[in-house]
Fold this protein.
Amino acid sequence: MDAAVTPDPTVLDAPALIVAMGARARVAAGLLARTPTPAKAAALAAAGAAIRDDAEAILAANTRDLARAEAAGLSGAMLDRLRLDAARLAGIADAVAAVGGLADPVGQTIDETRRPNGLVLSRVRVPIGVIGIVYESRPNVTADAAALCVMSGNAAILRGGTEAVDSNRALHAAFARGLASAGLPVDAVQLVPTQDRDAVGAMLGAEGVLDLVVPRGGKGLVARVQAEARVPVLAHLDGINHVYVDGSADPTMARAIVLDAKMRRTGICGAMETLLIDRAYPDPAGLIRALASAGCAVRADAEALGVAPDVATPASDADWDTEYLGAIASVAIVAGVDRALAHIAAHGSHHTDAIVAADEAVARRFLAEVDSAIVLWNASTQFADGGEFGLGAEIGIATGRLHARGPVALEGLTTYKWVGLGTGQVRG
């Protein structure tokens, strides 16, 4: 199907632009909601193939974005999020196609009950409708969000960051071509054609046009969305993630988990930012020195500084509340799990926290009492990822308490309706 003519982004009436895009998205969402699972899967396979076919153009676009970003002085973490190479792009294409192989939540019966009068009531999953996604840096979000929305029967309006504008446009063009080749409406996934900040404001105020807004980016973006939105928001906040190494932890395991949690990829939201070491742990200096040897700058409290003064610097109060997204970690030595729990409650962001312990009772207590979307026992925080959870791609990791929490994938992009099956019942 042909897309409607895109408004000229140089003549911006942001509210009118979003209303027009939303109207087209609403029509597409109605079609998607009725599209059978095999047709959605075929469209995503075609979109993945189109991304692979356009690899040269997409990587060239990304090179232009990177050049501008480097000239603008973006941080190493932001550049890493922005950068595509052949392997990463192949992974994006594969992820798009893989979403089509996941269980389709639309139409699933959540539960069913029979009332005493014989009326059968069930809750059935349905798409949310039209979803706006506002994001920064990561061009993979363009493809991931598009695939998840299509498979869950939702239309998407995407507004990516200026730093990734060429990459996003190239990825979106390939994705749209794949949808069209499979007979699905290209208006199911639209990319806002301007980087004017007024377009974001128009999306946030588009009550009745958008059914949900998902921000994915830094604290400033999320704060703006939460402050201005007149549309429901599914928030992804910063990842101030902790690893607590209990006194019972196996030292070899602890070292491996700590290094992976911090250093595998320092710029992702699942990276460890604070290491808490039990005072009873036999070798706290070994963990601190391992981080330093791996190239991590260590900012330590007084006790941790005392055991490794040559490789650490004093932590400030602000360090405990900082998402570094780089090769920096704050480290504290604490008096057991009670103090670890208190520290996480005071400074965590409810994203992902992990314990390394051989003592099951301590570990179970940690899992029960840490109020985060993801809690892990004897595993790296870098597993905070929809793909690693078997969900395919993710639209973000929700850190709130309503609707969806943790990696948000297909189920998180649905709501439900009640369906009643009667045999003539009346309520007299």
About this structure: Residues 1-11 have pLDDT under 50 and may be disordered. The domain at 14-234+408-420 is CATH 3.40.605.10 (Aldehyde Dehydrogenase; Chain A, domain 1).
